[in-house]
């Protein structure tokens, strides 16, 4: 049975490769004019969960976030309209990565619920961009992305979003990493929240703050700060390792911390009078955590960019924006409908502003940046504003030659990795504290 499926899949791959190679810009051939993307195609994607220009623009105007500001000046950028009604991050990122909605990819909830039909771990019901480009012989490094446990075989490396969990186990969870040959080195990248020193945490707190006293007075907030930052620091370590493992076509770096930090600390920033939690000492201690966290995110973004040539094609995006507390509750109610998007590429004019980007346009656009066509069953379109002349030719060619579908590339379910109930409860506890689940 497995062998039969493999045969069907390899026939599909051959079919796709034939289509891709038949494109004027495919497989290194030159068509009308020079092929727009450099060969071989490369793309760095940096996902910053919940980043919102409403927060970032005033910081940039103050001279903060210098790496993001410099990248934006070299990029075409704009605000990205996410799904309305507002949705949870796993659903949004799966839609970004597949180019189709949750009714197709099936990722609709944080955790597998009894009796609810949802994909098993990372085997979503629609192929992700790493499956599509893998069919064309391109490799991906992806780490920390939602709904990627157990990590499954791809052409490249997948580091699951469960990496930060289950630290107390004597043996790490199985299948945190594909391929397993990297598991020990990847697990060693984890940062334990308790290993962060007071002097490290002080960067998110007011100058001269007594960190130990704050940990005693506000244990929940300080615990969240430690855990969210440690997870992001761990994934930054993973990226530092992966950059030397191979020269991946798609390098997808993702930070979940900004959303977690925002859910926990945005109400201090907004000084929401309706919030009973904002007593003056607490407010003074935590008012700037969100902005100071973005200063750290900017440093991380700068470091990741520095691993690649200065003109390396790169995109930075979020899955939704962040509004902060609203009267109707926490969780997704705090999100906003406008995420961020910027792209640095010879296909797009530096400094240009997009006035319309929809979430489902992102996957077709990333495929195009990697020299591949979107599929006819993807509702979105390759971003067609702010194109350079070469970009215009390239995008028109790919839109004209959409493949019928990439759906045949959807992953076969891998072996079920026995989920540790203690790890499940650890994750539920964290999501509950953020208002995502009851
Ligand atoms: Zn959120």
The main sheet comes to: 8 strands, mixed
Helix/strand order: HEHHEHHHEEEHHHHEHHHEEEEHHH
What is the percent of helical residues? 25-40%
- Name every ligand kind in the structure: zinc ion
Quaternary structure classification = single chain
Q: What distance lies between the first and last C-alpha atoms, to the nearest angstrom?
A: 41 Å
CATH class designation: Alpha Beta
Whole-number tally of structural domains: 1
- Predict the CATH topology: Alkaline Phosphatase, subunit A
Can you characterise this structure?
39% of the residues lie in helices and 10% in strands. It has a single domain (41-433), classed as Alkaline Phosphatase, subunit A (3-Layer(aba) Sandwich), CATH 3.40.720.10. The radius of gyration is 21 Å and the shape is globular. It is built from 16 helices and 10 strands. The chain has 438 residues and is α/β, with parallel strands linked by helices. The model is unreliable at 1-6 and 24-38 (pLDDT under 50). The chain binds zinc ion (ZN). Zinc ion (ZN) binds at residues 50, 89, 259, 263, 335.
